[in-house]
Amino acid sequence: MNKVLRIILVLVLFAMLAGVRYFQEVLFYDPLLLFFKANTAAAPLPEFVVPKFYVHLTLRFLLNAVLSLAILWLLFKKWEVIQISVVIYLLFFMVLMVLLALALKITTVGDYQLLFYIRRFLIQPLLLLLLIPAFYFVKK
User: Fold this and answer.
1) 74-113: per-residue pLDDT in tens?
2) Which of residues 70 and 50 earns the better pLDDT score?
3) Which of 57, 85, 58 is nearest to 69 (CA)?
4) Rounded to whole angstroms, how far apart are CA atoms 127 and 89?
5) Residue 126, Cβ density class (10 Å: 0-12 exposed, 13-18 middle, ≥19 buried)
6) What is the spatial distance between Cα 32 and Cα 2, in angstroms, rounded to a whole number?
């Protein structure tokens, strides 16, 4: 595959990541999305269906992870990079899901910062932004 085609595919995959973010309200059940957009510092968390929330959070994480792994493959073309990335993504997901469950249990009204950031790391492809420079540094 030539370099121009790889660059175009990487850009398309980044556009797809942006599309996941743009259509998040349509694609995923996330009652905390609107809650955190509003000024709700003194409001209690909204009522929501917890299993449905976790399933949609997992689906969104998986979608972002698959797109991110495809980007990493196109950038580095090494199975070792993908294998390491899959392990990192799995560990990241397991730890953050446990922390999210704990944060939902212990969060008090007005103290939503921990919950906000744990959820943010799960729903955004932030890990990709860390892995690209890390693998590039290792490559050099």
Assistant:
1) 999 999 999 999 999 999 999 999 999 999 988 887 788 8
2) 70
3) 85
4) 8
5) middle
6) 43
